[in-house]
Here is the input.
Amino acid sequence: MTLALVRRAAVFCALTIVSPLLLAAQQQATSTVSGHVTDASVGRGLPDVQVLITGTRIGAVTGPNGEFTLTGVPIGARSITVRRIGYEPVVRPVTVVLGSTATADVALRVSAVNLSEVVVTGTGIATEKRKVGTNIATVDSALISRAQATTVDQAMQGKIPGAQITQNSGSPGGGGISVRLRGVNSFISGSDPLYIIDGVIVNNESGQLADLGTRANPQNRLADLNPDDIEHIEVIRGAAAAALYGSRANNGVVQIFTKRGTSGKPRFTSTTRWGTSQLRAQQPFNFYPFDVNGLPITRFNYQDDIFHRAPSWEQNVTVEGGSDQTRYFMSGNFGNEDGIMRSTASRRTGARVNLQQQLSPTLVANVTSNYVTTNNQLQAFGEQNDYGIMGSLFFAPTNVDFRPINGVYPLPPALGTNPLLAIARIRNPQTIERFIGSTKLSWTPLSKFLVDYTIGIDNTGFEQRQFVPRNAVLGTAPLATGRSQSVFENNRVVNQDAVTSYDWGSLGSAEMRTTAGANYTSQRVRITQATANGLAPVGDLVSAGSVFSAAQTDVELRTLGFYGQHELSFGDKLFLSGGVRWDASSTFAPSERWQAFPKLSASYVLVDNRAGSLNNLRLRSALGWAGSQPGILNAYSQFITFTQLPFAGRPGFVNDVTFGNPNLRNERAREWELGADAGFLGGRVAAEATYYDRLVSDLLFFRPLPTSTGFSRQFYPIGTMSNKGLELLLKTTNVDAPNFQWTSTMTYAHNKNLVESLTIQDFQSAGGYPNRIRAGEPAGVFYGSYAARDCVTGALLTDSLGRYRRSNQTADMGATLAIREALSHGTCNDSLNAVIGDPNPKWTGSFLNEFTLGKKIHLRALLDGVFGNKIMNLSTRAQNAGIASNSKSYERELLPYGDPRKLPPGWNARTQGIFQYWIEDGTFVKLRELSASYTVDWPGVRRYFRDGVDLTLSGRNLAVWTNYSGYDPEINLFGTNAGGLQSVQTTAADRGFDFGGYPIPRVWQLSARVTF
Amino acid sequence: MRMMRQCLGATAAIMLAACNLDLQNPNQPTEGQVTSSPDGVIALATGLQGRFAQSYGNYAYMAGLVTDEFASTTAALISISDAEQGSVPPGTGIAENVFNSIYRTVRTADDLLNGANALAGQFDAGTRSGLRALAFALKAESLGEALQSYQQIPINTFGQTAPTYVARAVALPVVRELLDSAEAEIAATPPSTFFNNNILTPGVNLPNVIHLLRARYARMANDDATALAAANAVGRTGPSALSLLTFPSPAVNFYANVTGGTNGVSPRRQWRLTMEAGDQRFTWFVVPSATATGRVGALLDLWNRYANPQSPLPVYFPDEALLIKAEALVNGGQIVPAQAVIDSVRTDCTGGRGIDDPKACLPPLAAGQTAATLLDEIYRQRRYELLGTGLRWEDARRRNHIFGPVAAPGVPNEGQRCWLPYALGDRNANSNVPPDPAESTSFPSGCTY
Here is the structure.
């Protein structure tokens, strides 16, 4: 019976695939609509405007000058709907007559608030924003292209309230960027949201395949995407909005849509960029010309040798166009960026073809394909102190002459390598070959019924090589004998999505729509590694070695989900919806696998496009659940496994000391949010406010097991954590005169994170660093040694030489507790460690101002800030270590007695053990983006280029206002490697460490864009 | 609507059929895969011997540090130089290693027993008895090492969520029962040739190991009759008299692994300098040095044969059996036969019993020995014959020769402390871990069990 039903349905489905061909033969009469969309106040053509025949899927996006052509429009009285982010939508009637092209020119008015904007993320199917109970942030192509950023996530910095987007390093090719939406939500899945590009779930791993600084973050794989290809981005920030994505959506979802092309003759756009990057400011070092005995000594500033002014260059060509049935967008991109650290560079070459084909009036196919090759030449930094350049800089005393003698590079005395040697001879090339493609079929058999099916693939081939020549590092074998490594990774994600929706139309005063869908994702990661030590003097491949080792890893994750959603609307004012996702992942135990993630949402439009001072007002609220899965590293944690222990030359097995969890289930987040959107003063002021409250339960981490059982830990639900916060967005049109426009956008986000409960003892989240997960504190607080204070007065306790004393230490404070308490006048110094700082910001905010002068000049400035967070400056601590002694404060120890700046001997040695001493305020405001554009449209120029030449001078990271003393308050030792392969334990909570980071450069760029 | 439902149903059916969510882990075998195949169980036996070598090394290393045998080399970590001065705070890595590795060995022994029982039909009787005897013996010795390091120890750990700790009076009989089971197993069915050639580490004679261990723990239980009988059963001549753990490259002998680097230890020079004049046993263990000093100033000799990474490590020194026998005889009032046994250890010299063990080349004892002088002589011989086996610590304990911590560069005398603190790795997840035992503050002292 069931089988018969399945068979009948299968036959029907097969027919539906064939039927378009039949339907194509009996098309009804159609014609063409074309027109021009302009900005009502400036009169300039508007690109990237969505134009749709109302109630159908026949649509187009306007070209660079606002022109559009809609083909295949059934004849008769129709209407077009014209929409663009930042403008008020317009519906315009148009009469389509057989044999002639109907014209429809539309002028759009700027509107800061736009409830008619259409979003698809988290809603299953295209839905107007007004109907959605959550706040969905959208970033359009103009904002992205004006950011002049190397990567998409860089371009999003400062644009989305509630998103803390951090560039962890200044490596070329974007630097490793982590995105944290509404705080830390998991310790195992990183902080990264789920990224979807044109319906393809993409891999954004940031783990490196060789040791470039164990947990350092030179690049994340979103860097492979060319920002110029992007049409717009939708961001949903949490469980309430993301329930339909089920067990992967706890960290939010970022959906990226690439350009579709517009109908008409082929249009070419060429953009060329020339740039230069440089170190923003050098760090102070010990340049005192005498040593500890007062004897003259030569000191060197290695920063002059390590950093340089680095050029970059990028060329982008796009062509778009289309005919009756077809639209296309093609792009080619080549860019090379040298890093400010000598011998580092990143080069990206990519091509894209996006094609839309109308197969029949009811069937449309969309195909996207993107091929990218990224070539990086990187150097290790961060924790890598054997051959990492930054570690070597901070740990080397400044009196070593690193210049080679007879071709031999001297090595530093205690730690690290010779940075000149590393620059000249150590190589870490990466080659990434990546294909991202999707095919989407949209079928609309009835105007009320539609079916979409998408299949997407993201296939990343990643080769990392590493060559450390012999005698390049301190110490003995094996690394000192040289190392050559080649690691190949293939990371393939395939996803299939089917969604269907039925519009019930009006039922009395209510309207209803039902949506149902299914999703299947499979990710497979395969890694093969070959390593050789004992390298020959010449030759840098693995085959040049004499001692070999190899490894192989193969991991697969599958997720299957079904969802359903029902929407109700009353009088275009009240919108209610409810849905559920039913989700299963191969990671979880069969008994716990199927999980339901429900959601409810309500939106009420109180004021809709009314004249007067209050034009729009909408209240919204939503409640939803979502989950998160362990990453690739812990994909098989449900299994009790054995590990190899060969003995006496024979293969042996013993139990893995990590015990499997046969009841493993996903983390679960519950979130509700409440908010309002309002427009004032004729659309000149728009405000959005959202309050959210999220509770994540069943947080997964390793719980300790009694070691007497022969095991040491198990992946297990260990606690709960909450995030509560407020997000504000204010957009204003300050001046809107014919020849001068000035708009501002302000964002503010406050998030309060709290580890609510733990079923295990508090623990260090990043092995070896004082980030701690502790009940009753925010995730990742610094927990470590502190300087003793007088318990009565609060004054720092110093010894007879004026040096700090570490609390409760025999050497610093006295042999017995009684002596120490007497010295302290109390018990306040009785503990060895305390909470000494919080790396989570109190709030983040941004302030964007854009000016348009006349029609040709456009200026913009984006300030972006993080406030109230603490940073542990381990770079300067390294400088103060005895073996380095290269800090300014060590220099003060060398000064002669009597100098008022003189520090007592041993001052710096004492501070090494007091971690509190290294905590600094991490508050900063950055001039993130600054740009000036001018359109050169002299007749002589226009003869060759129809729209003139757009010249833009822009800068990124130009100025930083901060009290932080290191290179940059934004860099972080750890990326978001949590759950990545080849990485030591790191969690999303591990923030606020500056330890040998790659400084973020100041970048100037000049770009020229022409269309013809 | 029906159309829509059908289409949806078909899609769901296709998707469900297409994607199997029950994936296997290709990177590591599961418990089921290992314990359900004869090859897997045989690999467990090899893994057990590997783990035993590791836990035995950890135990002997720590026992050597807190007695007067070893001191840290210059590059060693501070916790190692603290331990050589008798200080072992809870959580010290090298002390945790003792407990954790011992109980990993115990777990693997239990896994092997279960596997050998579950697949009883797939092994021939001799192979099964060999597997079981090996598991019993190595589990027994591991628990024995635990009770020579900790005041109380857990004995029931397999499948427990919070193992309970018991005193030596309860634990020692368990160790002896395990050894009796091992002996009964091989007595009933001698291990097969397949077991001896393909499973047992080449160079190890399982019956001799079992006899020696029975003698060792009978002695500890003051059961002189069993100790005497078992010691007599230990083979004394020929290759089978020496059981060796072998370390073919790239494996590394435990002591070679800790010769250099941050966990480096070396024998204290005092060990050689306090020998009776003419005693040649030092040449087996160390290369004399006049200059080597440790991290906190201890005077050291350098390792001799253990410095070679591939050098085998004896499971026991054959003369331990003779010294146990002599002790049993003295306790039984048989002074003259006891002296003869001791003399056979003292006079063991080049050639000797044809095995490569430490050779004293000393003259026999003078006539007219008493029980007391012979017992002293037995302890002295044990000190020089059994360096680096961990037995020194128990000898200090049973003679009430705990002389307390000695700050460097002072030279410690016999035992510096009675017990190690319990492992935090267990305490953090097991509420049944007793409080750490208090160490004595007046010396010399004995230990409370």
In short: The radius of gyration of chain B is 25 Å. Residues 288 and 301 of chain B are 5 Å apart (CA to CA). Chain B has a mean pLDDT of 92. Residues 38-66 of chain B form the longest helix (29 residues).
